[in-house]
Write a structure and sequence with these properties.
Number of domains: 2
Structural class: mainly beta
Order of helices and strands: HEEEEEEEEEEE
Bound molecules: copper (II) ion
Shape: globular
Strand order of the largest sheet: 5-10-11-1-2-3-9
CATH architecture of the largest domain: Sandwich
Number of strands: 11
Helix content: 10-25%
CATH class of the largest domain: Mainly Beta
Length: 191
């Protein structure tokens, strides 16, 4: 079952639940839709998570909290496929997290221009990791959404790269290099 199918099933289940539970009551305000990416390194160890909260006036608040990464700046993006599996090419060479595909580009811009450009909507600012290997950041983007429309990131992936992203097409994809951590964006788990 794909993440999209899971999502559809979850919405169907929610709709039934709302119909069953809420029908006799007055309308209740909906909670902000919240999703998560549980982030793993290339050894398969979970190193943190990202939380994505849909803002009712549009856009998404993103909170990333990870540890165990090399200090410094790391390119970070939404990639288009919700899979952090490796991808093996015809020569048998395996790319960690290769199944996540390329950068999420709902407008079909074909350009990698960073968090404020007119390129891939999934391009974020570099993740800054401190000397202890930790990174914690919260930011807002109005270029993405959760649970609706062509900019929906649920069922896609959050990727962290080995090197700094220069927010240009030269070198391609900002030069951020290898994929070192990945999380599939899906339902928030109960704590
Ligand atoms: Cu990337």
């Amino acid at each position: 079952m794909t993440m999209r199918m899971l999502k559809t099933a979850a919405f169907a289940a929610c709709a039934l639940l709302v119909a069953a539970v809420a029908a006799p009551r007055p309308a209740i305000s909906a909670q902000a839709p919240t999703f998560a990416a549980y982030i793993y390194d290339t050894t398969g160890k979970q190193i943190g998570q990202a939380i994505f909260v849909g803002i009712d006036t549009g856009g998404v608040q993103v909170r990333v909290d990870v540890s165990g990464l090399p200090p410094g700046k790391h390119g970070m993006h939404i990639h288009e496929v919700g899979s952090c599996n490796p991808l093996r090419n015809t020569a048998g060479v395996s790319t960690p997290f290769g199944a996540a595909g390329g950068h999420f580009d709902p407008q079909g811009s074909g350009h990698h221009l960073g968090p404020n450009g007119t390129g891939h909507a999934g391009d974020f600012a570099n993740l800054v990791v401190d000397n202890a290997g930790n990174a914690r950041t919260t930011f807002f983007t109005d270029r993405l959404s959760v649970s609706s429309g062509p900019t929906d990131i649920v069922g896609r992936s959050l990727m962290i790269h080995a090197a700094e992203d220069n927010y240009t097409d030269n070198p391609p994809l900002g030069g951020s290099g290898a994929r070192i951590a990945c999380g599939e964006i899906g339902p928030l788990r109960a704590m």
